[in-house]
Automatic annotation (TrEMBL):
Pfam families per the UniProt record, alphabetical: YjdM, Zn_Ribbon_YjdM
NCBIfam families reported in the protein's UniProt record: phnA
Domain Protein YjdM C-terminal intervals: 46-113
Recorded family membership: Belongs to the YjdM family.
InterPro entries attached to this UniProt entry: YjdM (IPR004624), YjdM_C (IPR013988), YjdM_N (IPR013987)
Protein YjdM N-terminal domain residues: 3-32
Gene3D superfamilies associated with the record: 2.20.25.10, SH3 Domains
Name of this chain's protein: Alkylphosphonate utilization protein
Amino acid sequence: MSTLPPCPKCGSEYSYEDGSQLVCPECAHEWSPDGEQAAAEGERVIRDAVGNLLQDGDSVSVIKDLKVKGSSLVVKVGTKVKNIRLCDGDHDIDCKIDGIGAMKLKSEFVKKV
């Protein structure tokens, strides 16, 4: 008997492992078992631009020049941000950037270091 969880999309019980992912043969949906467990427990799952799981206290680097709204400042590519805090909303990373100050970033524009 299989101990793998059913497909979250179609509910099929025939899911199988393919490397680190789980795959449904009926609807071709792929998902990560780690993200599925956290989502089932009610925790938020926030991933960076590459797909790495982010947590409070992680360090990230910016992957794109970002204009700071209401200012002429720009956060340059490669800027390292230490000790991030995850929050709810569209901009899901709360941090302090040297030379700019406190701001919020979108997780799609950062990569875990």
